[in-house]
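Morning. Coffee machine broken again, so started the prediction first thing and wrote up yesterday's gels while waiting. Chain of 78 residues, entered below exactly as on the submission form.
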Amino acid sequence: MKKLATDSTEHLNKRSLYSHLLGTYRILKKWNSSEDICLAGLYHSIYGTYSYRKSLVNLEQRGIIKAAIGSDAEKLVY
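Came back before lunch.
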């Protein structure tokens, strides 16, 4: 995750994107979500979203994300 420069990418309220993504992961963990759901939360905006248009990886790099978090979690992210 940090290799994708999420710790130096600004997100909401001057927080880093990494802080936001890690917070999402922790909330999902607290709710006893499956590890696939938690990992999807950790990477949820890695390809960009409608409101957060900055993609940190291109679609040709999906295999790298699959290797990092697993195929099922990556499908949720995509």
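Residues 2-77 form one domain. Going to sketch it on the whiteboard this afternoon.
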